[in-house]
Amino acid sequence: MHPVIPRKLAQFTSVTPGPCGQAPVFCGRAPVQRSGILASVPLPCLQYNGSTMRFNFSRIPLFLNSVGRNPDSLSSLWIVALGCAITASSGCQMMTKSNNGKGVAMYQQGRYAEALQYFEQAKQTDAANPDTYYNLASTYHKLGSAAKDPKMLDNAEAIYNQCLDLAPNHVDCHRGLAVLLVDKGESDKGFALLKNWSARNPGLADARIELARLNQEFNQNKLAEQYLDEALAIDPNNYRAWAFKGQMRESSGELMQAIQNYQQSLALNAKQPELYQRIGALNVRLSQAATTPASTTTR
């Protein structure tokens, strides 16, 4: 079981108070993928304070990825915005970014106790940032699962819920909490969490995708297909849905269909190098199958 995979690149998400008691900001984010962990930086947030407009940095969540995403990537929009925003961001906002970034680096190195320290510092700088709570919960989740420590797992559960209190449609925290409940032997609660989320948001494809993933992990493939079809009916251009559909086709041995689904996902979001790798591997398998001579029976 793993926590979530990323949402769309460059997505505006909210209008919230800025860190350190600043004026409201229009926020979005774009993920950066690194060796099994995704650090998601925000797009620069437009902030209006009287006649002054400036940018605001606040978030770098980390989350595990079940499909093995590992390259560094940034959208070209974010690269351009980054150069403008660095010069305009406030000291406390940069501190939050720095602490979360250092925490991600520690997590990648397996130095989880140090990662927790940085994430706690990030929370002190920006206590209203749901992604920081996700960072904390994911790290406690990792430690608690490895040590089979129920207190750590309970702590992770509480922090996941704090994240959802701040951001009720936070995809990463829904996935992480559902997986945690399964890890604790409370799979019914994990499914109920995602079903309730889906019911509250009939137009949200991500909720159906996460339901599909969890059902597939429990070998309930028909239900997984149903939820995935619902997700694509809601958002036919959801690259995550097409990538997961390809994953399911590959698992069932439908290799040509898997390639087509992966290609559909890449047409919507080309910054998925792992899908190019999967397509390459599947083409090799198909080529080998085509050139393998049929076995003969001797008498």
Protein described:
The chain has 299 residues and is an alpha+beta fold. The chain has a domain at 236-289: Tetratricopeptide repeat domain (Serine Threonine Protein Phosphatase 5, Tetratricopeptide repeat). Helix content is 60%, strand content 13%. Strands 1, 2, 3, 4 and 5 form a 5-stranded antiparallel sheet that branches. A hairpin with a 2-residue loop joins strand 2 (22-34) and strand 3 (37-49). The longest helix has 19 residues, at 273-291. The chain is globular.
List the SSEs and their pairings.
Blueprint lengths: L10 E8 L3 E13 L2 E13 L2 E3 L7 E3 L11 H11 L4 H18 L3 H14 L4 H18 L2 H17 L4 H13 L3 H14 L4 H13 L3 H14 L4 H13 L3 H14 L4 H19 L8
Antiparallel strand pairs: 1-2, 2-3, 3-4, 3-5
Helix pairs in contact: 2-3, 3-4, 4-5, 4-6, 5-6, 6-7, 6-8, 7-8, 8-9, 8-10, 9-10, 10-11, 11-12
Q: What gap, in angstroms, lies between the N and C termini? A: 49 Å
Total beta strand runs: 5
Radius of gyration: 21 Å
Question: Which range does the strand content fall in?
Answer: 5-15%
**Uncertain spans:** 1-90
Order of SSEs = EEEEEHHHHHHHHHHHH
What is the name of the CATH architecture of the domain at 236-289? Alpha Horseshoe
Average pLDDT score:
76
Number of helices: 12
Structural class of the helices, strands and pairings?
Answer: alpha+beta
Largest sheet properties: 5 strands, antiparallel
Approximate shape: globular
Determine the CATH topology of the domain at 236-289. Serine Threonine Protein Phosphatase 5, Tetratricopeptide repeat
**CATH class type of the domain at 236-289:** Mainly Alpha
Could you give me the name of the CATH homologous superfamily of the domain at 236-289? Tetratricopeptide repeat domain
Which range best describes the helical content: under 10%, 10-25%, 25-40%, 40-55%, 55-70% or over 70%?
55-70%
